[in-house]
Design brief:
It is a single chain. The protein is of the alpha+beta class and about 90 residues long. Helices cover about 45% and strands about 30% of the residues. The protein has two domains: about 40 residues; about 50 residues, HU Protein, Chain A (Irregular), CATH 4.10.520. It contains three helices and five strands. It has a three-stranded antiparallel β-sheet. A two-stranded antiparallel sheet has the order 3-4. α1 crosses α2. The chain is elongated and about 55 Å long.
C-alpha cells in the first residue's frame, strides 16, 4: 500500500476529504518524528508505541573482504506493536 492508497482508505473510513486526511497524516508523521527525535515515546493505543534506543558500538566483519569493521554507536527508532495489532496480524 502506498501513501495515496492509505489516504483514500482512511478518508473513506473517517468520512473526511482526501485533502484533509492527507493533512492529518502529514501532521501525525511530523509530530511522531519530532517527538521520537527529542527522545520522547509516542504511544497510540491499539496500534503501538514509537521510541528510540541507543545501539551500542560493536565490531563487525565485511563478508566480502573479511575485514574487521568498527561500527559506531547509533540511536535507532524502535516500534513496539500493541497486542491488538499483533493479534490481528497473527490471526489465521
Amino acid at each position: 500500500m502506498n501513501k495515496a492508497q492509505l489516504v483514500e482508505m482512511a478518508s473513506g473510513k473517517a468520512g473526511l476529504s482526501k485533502k484533509d486526511t492527507e493533512s492529518v497524516l502529514a501532521a501525525l508523521s511530523e509530530v511522531i518524528i519530532s517527538q521520537v527525535a527529542a527522545g520522547e515515546k509516542v504511544a497510540i493505543p491499539g496500534f503501538g508505541a514509537f521510541g528510540s534506543r541507543v545501539r551500542p558500538a560493536r565490531t563487525g566483519v565485511n563478508p566480502a573482504t573479511k575485514a574487521v569493521l568498527d561500527i559506531p554507536e547509533a540511536t535507532v527508532v524502535k516500534f513496539v506493536p500493541a497486542s491488538v495489532f499483533k493479534d490481528a496480524v497473527n490471526t489465521k
